[in-house]
């Protein structure tokens, strides 16, 4: 499982290198879905990994 950790850090997550991150990302054919702004114009922290078509 890949997750992005926002502050404060979660103790149960293991930090990995960017090289390992992209290896897992590519092996699982993932894409990164994110929302730049909320409906009211605030910065959004919504993101998730989805399967590539």
From TrEMBL:
Protein name in UniProt: Uncharacterized protein
Organism: marine sediment metagenome
């Amino acid at each position: 499982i890949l997750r992005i950790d926002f502050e404060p850090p979660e103790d149960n997550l293991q930090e990995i290198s960017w090289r390992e991150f992209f290896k897992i990302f590519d092996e699982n054919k993932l894409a990164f879905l994110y929302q730049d702004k909320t409906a009211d114009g605030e910065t959004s922290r919504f993101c998730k990994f989805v399967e590539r078509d």
